[in-house]
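Blackboard transcription, Thursday session:
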Amino acid sequence: MEILIKNGIVYDPINGINGEKMDIAVKNGKIVEKVNESTALHIDASEMIVMPGGVDIHSHIAGGKVNSGRLLRPEDHFKDYEPKTSITRSGVGYSIPSTFTTGYRYAKMGYTTVMEPAMPPLEAKHTHEEFNDIPIIDKAAYPLIGDWWFVLEYLREGKIEECARYVAWMIISTKGYAIKIVNPGGLETWGFGRNVASLDDQVPHFCITPREILRGLCKVNKLLNLPHTIHVHTNNLGIPGNYITALDTMKCIEDLADEGKPAIHITHCQFSAFKGDDWRTFRSGAEEIAHYVNAHTHLTMDMGQVIFTDTTTMTADGPFQFNLYQLTGNKWTNHDVETETCSGIVPFRYRRKSFVHAVQWSIGLELALLIKNPWKIFMTTDHPNGGPFTAYPKIIAWLMSTKAREATMKKINRKARNRSLLPSIDRELSFYEIAIVTRAGQAKALGLSNKGHLGIGADADIAIYNINPETSDPSKDYRTIRKAFEQATYTIKGGKIVVKNGEIVKQVKGVTMWLDIHTSEPVKISEDMKRRFKEYWTVEYENYPVTEHYLENSYPIKVKASV
Amino acid sequence: MITLYPLKEFKHPIIAESINPEFFQGKSIQEIGSLKIWEGNKERKLRELFKIEEDKADNPTITIHGNIGKVRKIGKKMEKGEITIYGNVGMHLGEEMKGGKITVHGNADSWVGSMMKGGTIEIHGDAGDYLGAPYRGSNEGMHGGKIIVHGNVRSEAGAHMRKGIIKIYGNASQFAGFRMRGGTIYIQKDAEERVGACMSDGKIVICGFLKSVLPTFTIEGIKKKVKIEEDEKAVGPFYLFRGDLTEKGEGKLYVSKEKNPHLSYYEKFL
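(Written on the board underneath:)
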């Protein structure tokens, strides 16, 4: 099908297009130079914003832990349900929506690509099964590799190339997209009931430190030429004073980066930017982090913005989740994933009147506003940890309008308000910058060459929002902006119109992207490894890998490794 | 005043959130008849399932005659007015109710007054499980209001309760006051075991027989009377237990001394 989007006001930061009135032509699921005007379907986008489809670099949407969260929280669903329509299937929200609803809700906001950032390799099959059921959006998953025994052992022995081959095997076996590192070393240490407190603490029985894991996997990432950098959830997450750990983490791979190219992605940085000695002296460390990030080019990060709502926290960071349980007394789960990682879930309510929660809210926005280059920090809520992804339009309003920030500021805890840096920041993001933090920047950081832009040959993933940037002033009409971003006028996925006026009009299948890494010699699965599978895994080696036929819409991306 | 009569014996669950005095007030019979209601997975109009009669008196009162054991969520979130039901009623009666009164001359199913915040519910027959308890998984129990049951109730009455009062004039099944955090539960007759499991605060009074008290409760004394409500006291003597200690609980459990001679061995710990 051919589509011609007429007279839209286009924001396409990757191609440097900033609010130009132009036409976009779509043919066979790709953006093309022109189409046959008489036969193509015309979409009148005059006085509307046209952007590439949204890309979310970090959102827990599928997998074992997400599903455990759904089971743990029936009360999360019963107030937010969607009946089936002639096109869509029924489902429930709120903070952990069911698979179909996840796809629909993302599409309604104009998002077309979403990354599941924490896939325990052992539960890869489950993750891909859920991916098969999430409609419309394209997705990929990052396997958790940072605390895998093989990685720890090879890095300890300094066998980087060997380690790289095993990591490649793991990414192919789990059909993953990037190396995810959560609390490096801490998860293995948690197996012994402890945690690591700094980058130089030793992991018991492995004689390796978080610093060595980070540096080692960063080198592995480079050797394998992966499109995304290492995706790091820092040590000491959610503990006051952890901004020093976050800074140490960024510093520790400074020398490994190629000139001007990022080598590390610090995810949900808000949770790693806490200052103070304890919860009473808790403050924002956003200024220090922003100062460092502004002076360096080797990293990207995402916000992990907190929303004042009832949500469900879930991470692979078992010790963090356990602390959170002790803090809240809520119901909780914690899980040890054999030789690979762990995970935990705790329901959580962020309250405006809570000092700590209000400071957290402020930290996220401070980071996004104080870091000058929008290509370095992206908009996320670490769904569902900071809040559900459906709150993105709210964050857009906060980023675009000091008035919107002030309106929320009035309602938050007074002590937090007095300590917040936000009143001193008058920066307001433009539509161009919003397009970077919500799609272009994320696509670029992920190395997705066909996503996040509207150049010739790009995937025809397009979002059209009913805002006229020439007449509306986002700084004043932040409510209109929020509404417009909540309901895309059109979402086009792969050249097909899937959303019209905020309603799903067509259900299509998105692809599952994964890296088909070609190493010069394939990894040799030694007898020793098979023996270990027998001894330590509940799954036999033969049953372990996710084969390609498991993926309904497999989209392998070929990568040639240097090993 | 509006009177409703079910037109048939319902086979499928009916979700009747629209049967609420506030929705009915100021509406003509026609408009009331067009209110939406779910029968199974089909959306219907109220008049398709109920015969609606109007009385001249303009007070926000709804009376329902007939057996409506399949009809759920009557009086959801109601804030004022009155509903009287002559017959048995289905689940989730008065869910998240904030005010007004519901009277049932018959039995009620589970989740009566679930998550209620105010108002009164009076059941002249028996009530099912989870009386005043929140939706599964939630810990936001009853926040206020009053539930009176003249018959028996099944298990987990007043689970997660925070405030308000539940009076049961019959027997209660297991786990009454499970994870209770405040408020009062009064059981005039017998209670089954595990009363007050995991309670952290609040008060449970049992005037009848209780086979055993959880081992995580400790005896604190013997009281002659216990206050149930403003100007209402239960006369004992009662054994007073504190618990649940697994939750570092400060809850009070009063158990009749007279009806429970088998608990007298606790007295040596006083």
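Lecturer's comment: Chain B has a mean pLDDT of 94.
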